[in-house]
Design goal:
alpha/beta; about 20% strand
Length: about 120
């Protein structure tokens, strides 16, 4: 019997990665939805009745989900890669003159390796 997993990914890249990983696991049947924070609540509210055994998400989204379900919620830890994605988004937003709600005190990149060029921390050799 397969373990039914509902994964909530806050960005499309993580959704793709989770689907790819689940294909290699015979014991897991995983559905992945892209949603962040409170957008995830309607998706998980009836997960138990839909036959899911576990919910997988990350960060603040996992914290919010835990408040609304009785199923176990597994939190995917935040990595350095994720922090660089936020820093890159912040820099891009400032360059475009957009809003500054992403307020992390992170050093700004001054050349060097782009986040898109970093090795993916979720994949191993």
């Amino acid at each position: 019997m397969k373990i039914r997993v509902l994964a909530i990914a806050p960005y499309p890249g993580l959704k793709d990665l989770l689907l790819e990983m689940a294909q290699n696991e015979d014991a897991i049947e995983m559905d992945v939805e892209a949603a962040d924070l409170h957008e995830a609540v309607p998706l998980v509210r009836h997960a138990e009745q839909q036959g899911y055994d576990i919910i997988v998400s990350r960060g603040g989204t996992a914290t919010v989900i835990r408040k609304h379900v009785n199923l176990p919620v597994v939190d995917i830890p935040v990595s350095g890669y994720d922090i660089l994605k936020v820093a890159d988004a912040r820099e891009e937003r400032e360059f475009q003159g957009g809003d500054h709600r992403l307020s992390f005190d992170l050093p700004r990149r001054s050349g060097g390796v782009e986040p898109a060029g970093l090795p993916n921390p979720f994949l191993s050799d």
